[in-house]
Amino acid sequence: MLFPEYRPRRLREKESFRRMIRETALSVDDFILPLFAVEGKGIKKPIEPLPGQFHLSCDNLVKVVKEAADLNIPAVMLFGLPGKKDPLGTQAYAADGIVQKAIKTVKDALPDMTVLTDVCLCQYTDHGHCGMVDKGTVDNDATLDLLARTALSHVKAGADMVAPSDMMDGRIAEIRGTLDDEGYSHIPIMSYAVKYASSFYGPFRSAADSTPQFGDRRSYQMDPANALEAVREATMDVEEGADIIMVKPALPYLDILARLKQEIDLPLAAYNVSGEYAMIKAAEMMGWVDGIKVIMETLLSIKRAGADTILTYAAMEAARELDK
CATH homologous superfamily for 24-323? Predict the structure, then answer.
């Protein structure tokens, strides 16, 4: 089709035309809101690198989740900051751990809110790595049992879905087997299957107090240069029992998201991570961009690339904008 026979501007002329032929649409149903739970009471402490986000004690966490529910956001993802850390991250799987308490508090107050939990050890270990460390190296196989114990403790506390983010080989099979053996075969797993060793995690590591105390995470998170590896990782997790596959971060890896949409026959999640969000907020505070417009365009691009659900710190802002 060539000009002048084809004039695409004809269907851009009126807002009604643009609405009629719009290929991608955002919905509040697309969003999962990440939240940070901390020990204590009456705490709502701003997270400096994540404007508009807070460390929340359970009483204030419930208030924020209630606000999210009032905006029809269907789910929240809980992260926890423990009161103490140790080499084995024991607070990650303790029955009275911060995430376990947060789950119970939210489900007691809002039983219809879907609660997902991040399953990892980095916030709970004193070395900041996502697994057991032996002689300066993260021990993959020794970590699997601890991850499964963590996932099981979350489910026993009332979590509706668990989301392993550690990137240990074989952890989906280990968690699936443990949940099934304990009578929780109905609980789905959202796998951080394609998690890159990204520079966009900085604000989160500050918020979660999870910066590694030595080395980095490149020995278990993916090389940003690799695409075929993403297909292999996702395929492996599907075969091990994952129900949703996640790509993290979102924006630098939209090509990966689009590729997996063609390759993987499961719902796809994308994590609009802390660095992506923080850059928009910083530019907004400087007056360089219209923050909400950039947020909505960003989320639309993630949806267009193939995401069925989006984890985003901007969930409530976007929900309010969609409600206008």
Answer: Aldolase class I (3.20.20.70)
